[in-house]
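User: Continuing from earlier, I have the next pair ready.

Assistant: Great, send them over.

User: Here they are, in order.

Assistant: Folding the first of the pair now:
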Amino acid sequence: MVNPMGNKFGLVFLAFLSISALFFPSIPECLADSMSIIEKVNTFRSARGLRRLESFNLLETAAEAYALEIAETGLFSHTDVSGKRAAERFKAFGGTSLKVGEVIGVGSSEEAVFQAWVRSDSHREVILAPRWSHIGVGEAEFKGRKMMVALFIDRPFSDMQATVTDDGCLITADMSHPETVEPVLLSGGKYYDPLNISEDRKYFEFFIPFKAPVYFLYLGYRSKGDIVLTDYLTLKIELK
């Protein structure tokens, strides 16, 4: 005798597999094992019209450290044993990003972890966030399996420096993707536009026309009428 409920569940299961294949196409098995997590992420993003991410060594260092920490403590969480989340942990390594995306996972292989990520709504949302420009991945052995941590940031600026002058503070930086960025600086509750931008739009300067023992600087860019703040710096100086 045929169990009608068994057929029904079978149909539901097949339908789920079909939907998964339609919306979350996996990387061909012949390529998956030879691709790094970063390559898998970029293939997944590119297929959806999103920009590819660049690797960033400071992110990799932070991701690797947290993967090792999880493996040692056994605390599988986005909050570490001291209560810090991704942005705070990244800052401890010298990062300046205000927003840091993070996905973590454990599996028998990198491919197993990656497939678990892209089939999870919350993890997939992080991976496919349009704002990201850079990625860093770390891994560790965790109870005989792979412990993976991937960190994501929007890094429109690099090589940020501050120089104190007689009448204020000069902030300089390079632009990582100058074709899309109109830089803006927030300090002391006031927004500043660049004092100078190079002709190739790869370098800019801000000037803050006052002296203070501590500058709290937020750097970002204008996007469709909004201001997106991406980086935070604290600058302490000795006033004479």
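And the other member of the pair:
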Amino acid sequence: MIPSHFFLAMQAMVLAVLPAANGPVSEPSDMGRVVSVADFGAKGDGATDDTAAVQAAAVAAAGGTLKFPHRPAAYRITGTVTIRGSTRVIGDDSKILMALGPDHPTGRLFYVAGDDVEIGGLWIDASGANPRVTGNRYAIAIVGTAERHLRNVHVRNCKFTNLPWADAKAVIATHALYNKWADLSTVENCIADAVAGAAVFVSQSNGVRIINNDINNTGWYSIQLQDRVEGALVSGNRITGTVPGGRMWGGSVNLMSNGRDLGAGKARIKRVLITGNEISGVHSYTGAIQIESSS
């Protein structure tokens, strides 16, 4: 039996790199300024292509608040909506129909391109979308660069449903949230159900917190930390099941390092704390928690 003081020491090591995630976050420059997508002509009726209206509203809302008023149907979006730094995106369980075309160049629905961004209250769904696409899809992509990581992006109280496979055999899928070169991000109190990819995919990022989410029926690893991830916290999540017909990786947490220089002392995933999660359901490809070349 591993003594309890080992876990306490491990928690202290991880939390030592996390305080900045809870530290001061610079306020948007004009948070009181609210821009509604409806003001730019977005209908939210499920049929109208609202892409141009939402894109224009997002530009106008930079540094303030972008609002999606609740509608009985959905805002249909066929292109990428870029969220700039110091911006808050809010909805009231507002449904977004992810309808990117099969040849979309990046596969990103919402692309976070700056620091200090908050996204909450959105419901992103891809029911009826064409799943036969040429590359991965991302409902929310938080992506910096290797030279300049993003910081302090927080996604809370969002839902991701019915995000389809593109090609299960070729491992092309739709991920709910993709975080690369972005430090101190938070994914909290979100729901992911019937997501063919990962609910949360993190790569080359530090201090990411994935906490208190409900994740059901994923086709990829439900939570995947891949390559150069350090100081992550995975806590309080409820994970179950896999997508029928998928790769059957779902219902699991995976820590994976890639590259040729792995070996003793060269693990690329370090100081990750996985605690207080409930994991159940079918895991026909791997175990509930899989750790490869990590420490």
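Worth noting for the second one:
Residues 10 and 180 are 25 Å apart (CA to CA). The mean pLDDT is 83.
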